[in-house]
Amino acid sequence: MKRMCILLVGSILLSGCSDNGSKKENYSIHAEWAEEMFIKHYWNENGKLIHNAYPYSKEREGNLNYWWKAHAVDAMMDGYDRTGDEQYARKAEDIVKSIIKLNGSLFNEFYDDMEWLALAALRLYDATESETVKNYVIKLWGDIKTAWWEDELGGLAWKKDQRQSRNACSNGPAAILAARLYERFGSEEDLEWSKKIFAWQKEHLVDPETGNVYDGLELKADGTIDVNKNWIFTYNQGTYIGAAVELYKQTGDKGYLADAEKTAAAALAYHVHEGTGMMKEEGTGDGGLFKGILIRYLTQLYEVNKDSKIKEMIDHNADVLLSKGSTQEEGLFGTAWDKPHQEPLDLSVQLSGVFLLEAAAKIEKGDKK
Fold first, then answer.
1. How many angstroms separate the Cα of 32 from the Cα of each of 36, 97, 210, 356, 362?
2. Which of 43, 56, 90, 320 could make an SS bond with 21 (beta carbons 3.0 to 4.6 A apart)?
3. CA distance 326 to 269
């Protein structure tokens, strides 16, 4: 007999998750439960901020982890978009303020970190129309653009003191950001930036045969270029897909859609276990966030092309996470979505699980329209 599990969300009892990972109903309730558990375990009400790990310890709060917390803003905005509940937007704004306060500045030495915050804050602006938040985004974008090198190579640098390294993590999100700024505010210059960044990444960091996205390259002192083809990470594929989708939406050019679909197919082949259908582990720390980012941008591609393979993979992983990777009482998600978590549990890892359930809920809601 299959073991059925019961989820309690607020005053709602929900049955339906089984050991064999069979299809669940109403992912929205599961997503709400995940958000509630996330807030319960990571939110600091007194400081109006998000902790780096569960359980809390002062030692684990030694590093700001600017970019993890930028994604916590995204998690709150996922909850807001799904429910319209203003508490999510308020918490998102508090997290943005806490990042700036703890960092001592809006700006950061890592260009990709600033891109993540700008993307999340732009979603917050969409919800609140706060001019303060809009100004954060515009200022961040101004600083991000200084990462572009007008040399023989081009591309956006990863870090302010390592400009010889041009990485997917700094180029993909920037192309997404530029396209979204164009969509909202209408500057043709922003659209041209998005096109330029995307074209550079496609030329230098994407395998033309498979569509896999390489982590980055380094411009050597002798002018040679060293491309790291051994590192193929989920989040880099995700943001390249996301940039292609945004450019397709803004231009109608089906070439961008084809680029997104090719890399999505490559990601599903490369990062999903053929036997289990589960996304592979990518460890704790920064790697814990990677597959959650891919899930986000695969979902945005699905909204455009309705590729059943994307939906099936996300639903399957969500189902197994609910039945094998968590319990009603804990609501904590590990590095492997088909196994229990281990503590201490980094914020990055927990966020990926939240993103997965929010993605399943978003797909389900969209398909019902």
1. 6, 24, 37, 12, 12
2. 320
3. 26
